[in-house]
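user: can you give me the structure for this one chain? C-alpha cells are fine.
assistant: on it. calling the predictor now.
[tool input]
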Amino acid sequence: MGTRDGDGSDRSGERNAGRGPADRAGAADEDPTAQAARTGTVSPTDGPHGHDGPSPSAVERATLRLREAVPTEVAPADADPGGPGRPDEPPRYAPAWLRLREPADAAARAHELLDPLRIRLANLPSRADGLVVHDLGCGTGSMGRWLAPLLDGAQHWVLHDRDPYLLHFAAVAAPRSAADGSRVTVETRRGDLARLTPDALAGAGLVTASALLDVLTAEEVGTLAAACAAAGCPALLTLSVAGRVELAPAHALDAEITEAFNDHQRRTGLLGPDAVTSAAEAFAAHGATVRAHPSHWRLGPGEAALAEQWLRGWVGAAVEQRPELREPAGRYLEERLAACAAGELRVVVHHTDLLALCRPTGGAS
C-alpha cells in the first residue's frame, strides 16, 4: 500500500516568517522546531516539540497506522509500539524505515512530470517570498529533499504532519538551496489532513505529497482536490501503490498474497490501489488537467535491506487480512528472505505518480 515514506505527510503553506492563514487542517499552533527551521537555527539536538491536538478518529488512526508502515502496513520492528493505537498521544513512526526507503523513492519518482510542472509554475504570478509549497503528510521530509533541488527560484516549504517527532526530523534535514542556488526556507505545521480546507492552502503555488493518496478515503481525496482547485495550484502526488508486484523468480503464492495485501489496503474504506484513479477523477471534476506516470520501486541485491523489510510488511499485511494464509505464508516468507539474502531476488513494486494541473485562479489556463 502506500509505502509511507513518511512522506505520506502533508505540506501546506503559509507565508514566510510563519504568517499567513491559520491551518484549518488541525492544530493551528506552530511548534518551536518550525520557528527554528525557518530561521536556520534548528540543530539535531533541539528535540521534537509538539502540542496535544485532538484525539484522532478511528479512520485517522487507521490512516496513520498505514502511512508509515512497511508497504502497507505492518509497521517496521523499530516503530514505536505504543504510537498508532493510543488515542491519548500523537502517533509516532520509525524514521529508520523512512530513511531506508528514501533512496528507492527518489529513484522511482517520475522525472517525466517535472517539465510540465515547471512550465505551469513559470506561468504563475511571481511572489516576493518565492514559490510556496505545501507538503502534505511530510513525514521526515523526503519529498522536499528530492524536489526542492530540482526547481529553480526561492522556495518556502510548509511541512504538514500530525506527528511532531517526524516534523522535527523533516525540519532538521530540509534542503537550504534550490537548483539555481536560490534560498529554500521551511516551516512546520501540525494538523489533520482530513479536514484540509481551501483557506489552508491560500497563497500556495504547489501542493505535494508522497505515498499518501492510497491511505486516504475517497472523501478525503475529494477534499484535497477541491482545496487545490480553489487555490488554483498544481499538485504533484507521488508513489501511490498500484496494486501490482512482480517477483523473480516467481512463486505459486505470489498472486494470492498480492490479492490479500490489496484487500488489506482497502480496509476501513481506504482507497489503497484504487487511489490514483479516484484522485484523477476528483481533480478532473474540478477542471484540472491530470497526468499519471509509473514510479516503480525496482529492488535487487543492492536494495536487499529494503526488500527484506518490505517483504516482512507485505506478507504480514496479507496474513492479517487472511489469517488462513499464516502457515503457507510463513514458509513463503522464509524462502523469499533466503533468496533476498543470497542476492537472487528481484522485486518490482508498482507505484504511480500523478500531476494535477489545476486552473490558476484569475482565469489563466
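assistant: here you go. Residues 304-321 form the longest helix (18 residues). The beta strands are 10-11, 131-136, 155-161, 184-190, 206-210, 235-248, 289-294, 297-299, 346-357.
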